[in-house]
User: What shape does this take?
Amino acid sequence: MNILLAILVLGSIAAVFGALLGFASVRFKVDADPIVDQLDALLPQTQCGQCGYPGCKPYAQAVADGEAINKCAPGGEDTIKKIADLMGVEVQPIDDSHVSGDAPKSNRPKVAFVIEEDCIGCTKCIQACPVDAIIGAAKQMHTIIIDECTGCDLCVAPCPVDCIEMRELPDTIHNWQWDLTSIPVKQLD
Amino acid sequence: MAFWIASSPHNHNHTKTPNLMRLVIYATLPGVLAQWYFFGWGNLIHIGLAMTTAIICEFTVLSLRKKPISHELFDGSAFLTALLLGICLPALAPWWITVIGTMFAIVIVKQLYGGLGHNPFNPAMAGYVMLLVSFPLQMTLWQPPLTLVAVDLNFSNTLTTILTGFTVEGYSVEQVRTSIDGITMATPLDTLKTNTGLGLTVLESIKSPVFGENLALGWEWVNAGFLLGGLFLISRKAIAWQTPVSFLLSLFICSFIGYSISPDSSASTMFHWFSGATMLGAFFILTDPVTGATSNKGRIVVGLLAGLLVYLIRTSGGYPDGVAFAILLCNMSAPLIDQYTRPRTYGHQKGDK
Amino acid sequence: MVESVIERITRGHFWDFHGGIHPPEQKFLTSNKPIKQLALPKQLIIPLQQHIGREGDLLVSIGEHVLKGQALTLSTNPMVVPIHAPTSGTISAIKMSVIAHPSGLSQLCVFLDVDGEDTWRKRDVCTDLAQLSNHEIIKKIADAGIAGMGGAGFPTHIKVSSKPDIKFLIINGAECEPYITADDLLMMEQSNAIVDGIKIIDRLLTPAVILIGIEANKPKAIKALQQATAAIEKIKVCIVPTKYPTGGEKQLVQILTGQEVTSGRLPIHDGIVMQNIATCFAINEAVRHDTPLIRRVVTVTGQALNKPQNVWALLGTPINFLLEQCSVENIKNEKQTVIMGGPMMGFSVSSELVPIVKTSNCILVPSKKEMPSAFEKESKEVECIRCGQCSDVCPSQLLPQELQWSAKAKDYSQLEKLNLRDCIDCGACAYVCPSQIPLVHYYRIAKAEIREQQQLDLKAEKAKIRFEARKLRLEKEKVARQEKHQKAAAARKAAMNKATPEATGAKSAVAAALARVKAKKASKGQSQVNTSDSQNDLPTDTAVDQKSQVATAIARAKAKKKLKEEAVQKPSTSDGIVDNAIEEKSASTQQASTDDKKEKIAAAIAKAKAKKLSKSAEAPDLEKDSDDTSPKKTVSSDDKKAKIAAAIAKAKAKKLSKSAEVPGLEKDSEDSLPEQTVSSDDKKAKIAAAIAKAKNKALAKANEGKVEVNETSLLTSTNNATEIDSKPLQPEKMVQNNIAESENKPVAATDKKAKIAAAIAKAKAKKKLKEANTVEENDRDGV
Assistant: This one.
């Protein structure tokens, strides 16, 4: 009899709480962004393809499907950390095999630059640019829209005359980071 | 001439942390002097011992941590910790109590947490509580005021008692603590607690000689000395007035309520103010900026909380005085209090953070 | 509300802002000396951008002579403020030069060699303002290049042309920074002109009330302004308590009106406009006297100077000229801080050529004694002890100590939560910090990084959008192209179906070609039937496409195998092995017809198996065969299938030929195989030729060095695993080489068949040679 009572009590408690939890999960459902969108938001959107995917979104999709999180070279350790946080996995060191060539070790962002006298107007770089940041027409000199360039350096390789190079953006008063130690001080007599 | 680059502001009001610490150390003088006058050399010896230990510990840890020793060794924080611990210890406690307590305070409570500015607990109080919990016997070796002591507690007698447990004449600590009529004497708070436990009323209890003519013989003056020093600090803006004021107010209100409800079993408000470590805690320990709350509102909350805790521990806790425990508990809650007492930023509505 | 504010102000009651400090004022150094007119400097360096916004387009070129007041830049962009020639002279250079900015970076500057004449351009002095419309006044202000002279440099014409209902116009004469007395002196000396300027702004904005906020430490200026405004009811001179930073826009608004400027918004949203004293003066100059902003009052002060005083400095004057004028020679410090602006918010300049710009109100050259912290080589920073003095003095009621920790930890989201963006960089926290932490510097770095992060985020967002757009565009283009192709194809079809003569001609030509091909195939099928009775069932006559060719080849191979089985006298095990291997191969080739990759893999597997089996059977010759066959399968050209078929056929042929007992059949296979391959196209012919050659070579090899064959087999048996992987590549090359060789043969392209026939003949001859040798080989097998 006692056992029966115990089962009954426990069973009803379980039922009540189960119903409560079920209700809560329906009632207070949080509509989070799909994981792919969240991942995509963390990626630097250079669309460089160094991860082996044709863009940031495809890589985000791949990560959501279980791809390694350490393939984003432009994002660096910071991005890996953020992705690790989001995915709830361990932070991994960046996969060097996905860092193309002489990856920039300095922090200053780089943008592509067309050496104008060398450009033959082949439009190959235009086709390579993932963000349409190069303007120009066949047999016309091409140029980079600096504000749109993500620095992915995908346009460097296709150029048949090697007239594209990656250059660091210059320091201006608008992007200066209050690094007082770097100011050249003039010595007077 | 050459140009010299610096970030603004280019001017400074020339205050320095070591100066602040020194000011606080000076402000303890009235209380320490009162202590010396009523209780003899015991605490001064402990202070000296603690300071020596503190400086050795600080030096060792700083060199192990490869910190700029000249910079941080004499910033005064270690001296202040040692001073406060020395003041708190029972005058006749053996020397190793001080050494262990100071080592714990400096090495574990302060430096292991990252040094000055990073310790979540007040080192002196943490050291004191550690001693209280670990060495209850030694930590109750309170010495009655000199006027009640049969043995002549001069400097050498006190020193030998602390170092060996016996005076030069061979009296043991227990004998020293025993009054002329053969009763071992404790602090007024201790006496009150024991007596209340035995069912005696407060009025009956305060007939004990340790209470003296006023509130608590000797202790009242020591507390008055610290009150004086504290007021000096407030006037110099070295400490914020909010903490001690709210603490004393809270303690006053609590004891007043208790006293109104049952005058027989509760001590008076003034007894709470002027016995134990009330004033020391209010002006010198609770106001420790590192472990306290930073906003004014937060300071008030911390003070109120500390007052309540001190009263509760004194009346219903296992220990006669609760200042050290109350302060540690407040240290613990300070970050949370800070979190919820952030001031409203200019241009923001009350609600939005 | 406005009334209650006015009432309070008339009673002299002001609101207070949180915090604030009282640093040593040091205004006495310059406040009692009149503003000095300076001689003309030799050269002026005029930066193109001296305000918030963008630089204008240059109007002048190097070598041009300009008159005083002549505009040097121009733009239609409202955020662009023009600059003017402060005096007459010649433009000697237009180049990058160090500008008045804490970074010490360079910007484009116009270098003006002063001619000393100081000739004005033609001026249009306006005597009666009533004749001008508001629009004209605003245009005059804009053309005069006036930007806020208090520090930020916001274009004034935008500020005075705003539409919404303005309740308060506040004139900022607080000048709370220590040392600076430029506005103080200007108010003393030019109070009437300032009031005239205020009247112009009044006319443009029509505020309910005008409040002039002056700190109590400027009694003379207060008196002068009170006299100048005595007759005007609307203007109230408010004497506010001296406290730093009263002169901050947000703080002065709070002091005078009790309102707070909502975070992230401008005071104008709350109906408040603030103008600097010097700006009011400049407006009057511009509107009444047509004098653009080409000079300003600059306080040159500090105890390192012998004669600190206020001066009228032309914009573009390099600071070394100003310092000379104020006798800087008593500097004995090796390193000297020269601060542009006040000691609290000014920045130290890195070069003596930094020019005075519209926003520079002070040049401060402190001695080491009066400002030791400005000379400290190393930061004396120690750990924060959370004393909270910084938050006590913060005018924005921030928590500097918490901000500092978050800034050091680069926790930008926490900084955002703690409202770092509401920090006005006033420096009060760092001034009082007993731990000497350069708090403001940490905030600046954090702010710069946050700004950059935001820009990067924006850029990333833009890149994402552009990337998506591009993907969409490429997709669309692809679809469009396909449609185009389809249309074109349809058009062609339609054209063909039409009974036009050309179309029928083309059609018939195609039909004829097809017929010819069929005829050829049929004849070949005939010959094959003749050569071998087991090949009767092969559908050779209908085989037009490559698939059927492969099938044929396989079927044929099987048939031959059967024949071989009957005839062969070798141990049955080796036969079985060969059979298996071949079957595997044929299966794989069938797959090959559907999928290239699978075929390759299968071929490789088959090859591997064949190898192993052959090895286990101790038949080195067979192994060599399989080695030869599989490479051909892996050839990655467009007509793989043909090659595969050929290769298989060849393999079998070889095997058969090697088993010396069936010479007749060998001949058959030799015959059928090349013919089959030739029928499809040129390439196949080449391949066939190559195969024939390969066989020749193989035979030759077999003749010349059978020892070698054995050696290779032994070698492969020892390290078979690795070889299986690597082989398909190597032999492929071999095949290609063979093909190339066959191509190199000087045979006319038209009679390839003849060539092939020749090759076959050659091959046969060789085989016969080999036949003779097989006895020897069998011996070896026995061994």
Remarks:
- Residues 671 and 760 of chain C are 8 Å apart (CA to CA).
- Residues 518-782 of chain C form one domain.
- DSSP finds 27 helices and 17 strands in chain C.
- The interface with chain A takes residues 99, 101-105, 107, 350-352, 441, 444-445, 448-449, 452, 455-456, 459-464, 466-471 of chain C (CB under 8 Å).
